[in-house]
Amino acid sequence: MNIREFDYHLPDGLIAQYPIPERDASRLLVVRRDDGAILHRRFRELSLWLRPRDLLVLNDAKVIPARLYGRRTGGGKAEVLLIEEESPNRWWALVRPGKSLPVGRRLSFGADVGALVIDRREGGHRLLQFDGTPDIRAQLPCMGVMPLPPYVKRTRNIDGRTREDTLDAERYQTVFAMAEGSIAAPTAGLHFTRALLTQLEQHGLEIAFLTLHVGVGTFTPVTVERVEEHRMAAERYTIPEPTAAAIKRAKSEARRVLAVGSTTTRALEDAALDGGGVRAGEGTASLFITPGHHFRVVDALLTNFHLPRSTLLILVSAFAGRDLIGKGYEEAIQRGYRFYSYGDAMLIV
């Protein structure tokens, strides 16, 4: 497959820069695979499209304020995105400008926090050793900001702060986030309110959780021409025993498993067992889901609208078919849907 098959043009004005005031007031584009119908609704009407006893699986990963703004010794700004904790106070990070940060260069983040570059990888990756105590993770709420994707524009002051920091700290996080460690939000879950989750349970749905910490694997762009040559970076996930048991029951009773988000989908399909169940416990997902993939666990998918040429768009195309997804995106653009992380949602049944 050529990556051009997963390209489309999106007007800049449709890229959502801010969340709408009410999470569940977002629009919902419903795609029916059986007859190709495309319907336009509101997210708070989600229960109309779900069956009693469907199993809803959500990713409870919690975003950490992993973006830091500092200065290089000798002068100059530095932007750091912490991506993987190797050990306490030692993190792999994406840094900018990477060329100005060789091994041995120091960074300072205010008067009390510094870090030394002790190793490097291609693509701007640096291994940082942070100074002293307490552990840098404990200091992130005070010194870090939410790692918004680059298409969400913010005007920052000299310390990297913006007037929207408080808003983003609340809204770039699901209401059910529990497990800290993600560097991006599982955005399909951003539309849920606690009241809506209660309503779905009253409707008869069963709700279960897993954790996949969103990392660079999810948002690394596809740069090769042939889709099959792209390699996904691994991301850690955990499927609790109760969730694995709930999936096994649902499959044995011919009930649908609805995955909320591409991250949930990747974790479930990576852990899939013959017969429709999943392995409980920890795993590492490097599964790249492309058209032709046989979905063994996921029966319905709730997701946001994704960037052109992205692994996420390829995943939803694998689930619903490239032509049907293309038709849905075309209608969404024509009707002025809001796209990407803070945008509207799509339900594929």
What's the rounded overall pLDDT mean? 95
Helix-and-strand structural type: alpha/beta
The rounded distance between the terminal residues' Cα atoms is 25 Å
| CATH architecture identity of the largest domain | 3-Layer(aba) Sandwich
Total of domains: 2
What is the name of the CATH topology of the largest domain?
QueA-like
Strand content: 25-35%
The major sheet is characterized as:
9 strands, mixed
The geometry reads as globular
> What's the gyration radius in Å?
20 Å
Helix fraction?
10-25%
Biggest β-sheet: strands ordered side by side in the sheet: 2-1-17-16-14-3-12-13-15
CATH class of the largest domain: Alpha Beta
**DSSP helical segment count:** 8
Total beta strand runs? 17
**What is the chains' assembly state?**
single chain
| Low-confidence runs of at least 5 consecutive residues | none
Element order, helices and strands?
EEEEEEEEEEHHEHEHEHEHEEHHE
User: CATH-wise, what's the superfamily of the largest domain?
Assistant: QueA-like
Report on this model:
The structure is a single chain. It contains eight helices and 17 strands. With 349 residues, the chain is of the alpha/beta class. The chain has two domains: 3-63 and 173-348, QueA-like; 67-144, Beta Barrel (Thrombin, subunit H). The strands form three sheets. Strands 2-1-17-16-14-3-12-13-15 form a nine-stranded mixed β-sheet. It has a six-stranded antiparallel barrel with strand order 5-6-7-10-9-8.
